[in-house]
Task: structure prediction
Amino acid sequence: MGKLPSSFIEEVLSRTDIVEVIGERLRLTKSGKEYRALCPFHQEDTPSFYVSPEKQVYHCFGCGASGNVITFLMEYEKLTFTEAVRELARRAGLDIPEESGERFSVLYEINQFACDFYHRYLLSDQGKRAREYLKERGVEDRIIEEFKLGYAPPEGTTFLKKAKERFRLQDVERAGLAIRRERGYVDRFRRRIMFPIFSTSGKVIAFGGRILGEGEPKYLNSPDTPIYRKGSNFYSLYHSKNALREKRTCILVEGYFDYLSLYQGGIKNVLASLGTAFTDSQASILSRNVEKVYLFYDADQAGRRASLRGIELLVSSGLEIKIGIMENEKDPDELMRKEGKEGIERVMEQAVDFVDFVVEELRRKYDLSRMKHKELAIREVKELLSRIKHPVRRKLYQEAFAGRLAVVSSVFDEKEKPHKKPLTVPSFSPQDLEIELISLLLQFPHFLSSLDFLSPDDLELPIAREVMRRMHAGDIPSFVSVMEELEPSQRKTYTRAAFSNHEHENEDEIRDYTVKLGAKLKRLSLERQLLRIRREIEEKERRGEPVDLLLRQQQEILSERKKIANLGR
Result:
């Protein structure tokens, strides 16, 4: 059985929810942000097996079993790695590569070939009108080049005539670029401005096309293919992912031109939802990259409905949600062209909380002076609140909704959770503590600012030092990518730390614990330095050499240890 392409494995993981897969095999119950069950890998009476939908990993506090959805299937079903990936691919509706991988990789090749073809055609004499249109829309040449915008010829088979010189027409159809008619194949895209859609690794996987001139449909997208699912992608996450992770904020727009306009104007933490109804999969992608989302959907009724749908899904992902209200412009592109970056920033500053937006929409929908209508509105709010996993945040939003609707907050009340004991740093080995620290920092990157006393050089493990250095440089690796670099024994500690807060959902408590952990590692680092210096002092004294410099260094470390003695305790 041949090796599966890494891009295929990445695509499988992006379209798989570990909670659904494990939930089909175990009885999972909600526990804070996570789910828990009796561990399938050892005998137990009390559930100690936890699954994290946010991080897409599992960990058992009883036997230490841990990993991602692939390793779970390998252990539970006794499958090989390749068999597990193929099983998940079938479940996600993905065509599985043949052993040679050729049938799968050819789809990427065809899409790249099409991208190059459409781009060259746009820049040719035949693409003059299309270039003029892009100029009218304010799209600069540098953006045309960076995003490889193109133009599909108006004739029915111009692209196919070129494509069939290199590829089978059946494969071109599978790639979503040809349609089979009674008299043969024809180009799917004709007389359209072409927007390549990239995977997170930068491969062209699909296209969106905007008609040039009059015609229907105005926008035409690639169909779902073995390498592309509309509801599992954004335009263009590949170009924006670094800005999103750096700012931890996303401006979510509807259209291609909305996206390009903001990106061109220097606002790069933006994504477009590919003109489809917002999905759980897209919400999951956002929650792994940002903490706050601004919905900048069109100002018409359809845009408001799209915003409501987005709120319902985003609120369950634990994201802070703001609604950008554009009063005099129909969409973000128009606003950007009128007022530039300052206009977008103004709308962001004036953005309303999702609570105010939802209440306004309820007032449009119901006559809240009537008892029955108010009851219906309260039911809708209660359903929305039930999606908020964080108890403190849910309580705050509950109070906010109660105030806006002029009701007592108890109408939304849910049973309070019992008080939890404060988190304490366990007596693990220094290496385990370092693994736990980077696990927590990758879950809460903003905690790094609270650890200004700890440097990467204070850590012993190379992987821990490397992660901390990258985070100081603003490059935050993904949780799963770091897990893949760890030894099996280290992975258990790493994933256990991912669930260490499963009973402590108050972020301040977790931050305090992280500071305690960092302080303990700093004290261990200082102890190691003192031990080294004392040995050097003893050695020099035996040889009759001066030790003044070493004594000063020792005193500096002792002073630093005294300063940090009570930090985090």
Summary: The chain is about 50% helix and 10% strand. The domain at 237-358 is CATH 3.40.1360.10 (Dna Topoisomerase Vi A Subunit; Chain: A, domain 2). The chain has a mean pLDDT of 86.
